[in-house]
Amino acid sequence: RRLGRMGPTLQGEHVVLTPSAPEDTEEMWAATESSLAELIPYMVWAEDAAPEHTRAFMEMAAHNWRDGVANWIFTIRAEGSVAGTISLLASKPMLKVAEVGYWLRSDLTGRGYMTEAVRAIVEWGFDQAGMERVELRASPANIGSIRVAEKVGFIREGLLRGSGAAAGARHDHYIYGLLKEEYER
């Protein structure tokens, strides 16, 4: 059975988030391949990235939407093309806690697109998905991701030692949190 788009489209001023689906695979692979040098230090999957892994990821995302799995994966579109992905994983669904994760094509960073995408998915998570807390992890070395978290209003709550792995090594993450009532203010 062919899987198409099954979830909401989130519209920002400069970005559009669409439910990830297999028809995005070629563009997503092109965005990934062009950004591997910047992704490898932070994303464990980037070291072994390949077109077939991208297809499997996009198919899994579509299955999640179809089957109601609370791991909502969106394709970010900016400037008329695929720019990356952003997801909201209900990491503790009974507690209404989710974690946001994302990456953006390297040639599109520094333009506010990711900040806009994070705002859109956080708002959707609170208003539509019923979350009451959203978490975000960022490597202390990933200044761009830290800026995004802080611009959206996330509060740095601590350091998770050795909680990440990429480029063949363990690394730390800052943990950020945002409560629904804080975001609404």
Share of residues in strands = 25-35%
Low-confidence region ranges: none
Helix run count: 5
**How many strands, what sense, and barrel or not for the largest sheet?**
8 strands, mixed
Radius of gyration: 16 Å
User: Strand arrangement, largest sheet?
Assistant: 1-2-3-4-5-6-8-7
Q: Tell me, briefly, the overall form.
A: globular
What is the overall pLDDT average? 94
Order of helices and strands: EEHHEEEHEHEEH
Class from secondary-structure proportions: alpha+beta
Number of beta strands: 8
- Cα-to-Cα separation, first versus last residue: 44 Å
Helix content: 25-40%
Quaternary structure annotation: single chain
How would you explain this protein's 3D organization?
The chain is built from five helices and eight strands, in the order ββααβββαβαββα. The chain has 185 residues and is an alpha+beta fold. It is globular. The mean pLDDT is 94.
Summary, kept brief:
34% of the residues lie in helices and 35% in strands.
Task: For the structure shown, list the relevant keywords.
185 residues; globular; eight-stranded mixed β-sheet; alpha+beta
Q: Mind sketching the topology for me?
A:
Elements: E1 10-11, E2 15-19, H1 25-39, H2 51-67, E3 71-78, E4 81-92, E5 97-104, H3 113-127, E6 133-138, H4 143-152, E7 155-166, E8 169-179, H5 180-184
Parallel strand pairs: 5-6
Antiparallel strand pairs: 1-2, 2-3, 3-4, 4-5, 6-8, 7-8
Helix pairs in contact: 1-2, 3-4
